[in-house]
Amino acid sequence: MKRLFRFVLAFTIWLGGSLLAQKQSAPPSDDSLYDQVRLKLTADPAVNGGALTVEVKNGVVTVSGRVRTEKGRQKIDKIVRKVKGVKGVENKVTVDANAH
């Protein structure tokens, strides 16, 4: 009986670990990446993410629009690259001192 219990326990632990590993290895969807990127860009005052357009295709994020400073433009790359699952960034943002 003890052997059966140990076997069942070991199998359960193995199965749980396998399922967890499969779940963690699935890449995030483009919609999920879009949501995460928008939240992070909007939260950063130097970037003013509300004035930017974000598109995601196959994990590659394209950001376009205008920011006030070059520092803000460069920060976009850093912010987007930190989002887990992003495969690449296309920064098409231009610098315009009059941007909102």
SSE layout and pairing:
Elements: H1 2-25, H2 30-43, E1 52-57, E2 60-67, H3 70-81, E3 88-95
Parallel strand pairs: 2-3
Antiparallel strand pairs: 1-2
Shape: elongated
Query: What value does the Rg take, in angstroms?
Result: 21 Å
Strand order of the largest sheet: 1-2-3
By CATH reckoning, the class of the domain at 28-95 would read Alpha Beta
Kindly, what is the distance between the CA atoms of the first and last residues, rounded to a whole number of angstroms?
72 Å
| Structure classification | alpha+beta
Sheet having the most strands = 3 strands, mixed
Structure characterization notes:
With 100 residues, the chain is α+β, with helices and mostly antiparallel strands. The chain has a domain of 68 residues: Histidine-containing Protein, Chain: A, CATH 3.30.1340.30. The chain has a 3-stranded mixed β-sheet with strand order 1-2-3, covered by helices on one side. α3 links the parallel β2 and β3.
Compact overview of the structure:
The chain has helices at residues 2-25, 30-43, 70-81; strands at residues 52-57, 60-67, 88-95. The protein is an alpha+beta fold. Strands 1-2-3 form a 3-stranded mixed beta sheet, with helices on one face.
